[in-house]
Design a protein that fits this description.
By secondary structure, the chain is of the alpha+beta class. Helix content is 34%, strand content 24%. It has a domain of 125 residues. Strands 1, 2, 3, 4, 5, 6, 7 and 8 form an eight-stranded mixed sheet that branches. Helix 4 links the parallel strand 4 and strand 5. Helix 1 runs parallel beside helix 4 and helix 2 packs antiparallel against helix 3.
Length: 198
């Protein structure tokens, strides 16, 4: 079953051995200032036609943010785009983005964050897919004997970001939505600073 086949949280919890809850994942966030490169990239992106395709959103909005995060972590992570993660018949397919906990990797070996591009710009529609990818990442780490106890995820349309956290068999969905525009960008980058190694 492909990750994109998981359409609802009810379907996700019925087919996989997890439960979910909604909570405030990040009660305290230290803001991180964006780089000049990121600010310029997003400014240029906003000057483009507003009817972005999914591919354009990825290239123009999501990727520059991930580049900034990569630099902020002092290049201690690796970002994979369009990476296959095939665990079993229930969990297989291509992930939009996977962030691994080590730098300069040629192949995925320690996924810690799964990022799903929202289809039709709807964040809620991507939550089940993100949850499935996070379960797959958790199983991958168990098979590889990686001591990674928590997997994070995010669903984004490039402007809005919703985060998730998987610990053991509980998927926690953040109550809040974070934004990549204006002063909100500092808070979004602060969330990534909390969940990624620096």
């Amino acid at each position: 079953m492909s990750y994109s086949d998981y359409q609802t949280l009810k379907e996700l919890t019925k087919k996989l051995p997890i439960t979910y809850q909604v909570a405030d994942l990040f009660p305290t966030i230290q803001e991180v200032p964006p780089s000049v490169f990121l600010l310029h990239s997003l400014e240029v992106a906003q000057a483009l036609p507003s009817t972005f395709s999914e591919k354009a959103r990825s290239e123009n909005l999501i990727t520059p943010i991930l580049f900034d995060i990569f630099e902020h972590t002092q290049q201690s992570i690796t970002i994979f785009s369009g990476c296959s993660l095939n665990i079993n018949e229930q969990l297989s397919g291509i992930c939009d983005y996977l962030i691994a906990g080590k730098s300069q990797l040629l192949a995925l070996d320690s996924p810690i964050v799964c990022i799903v591009e929202a289809k039709n710009r709807s964040i809620d529609e991507g939550l089940a897919q993100a949850g499935a990818e996070m379960v797959a990442a958790q199983m991958f780490n168990q098979q590889e004997q990686n001591e990674i106890n928590v997997i994070y995820g995010a669903v984004t349309n490039g402007i809005e970001w919703k985060f998730l956290k998987l610990t053991e068999a509980v998927l926690i969905i953040d109550k809040k939505i974070y934004f990549s525009s204006g002063e909100n960008l500092k808070v979004l980058l602060g969330v990534f600073a909390l969940i990624l190694p620096c």
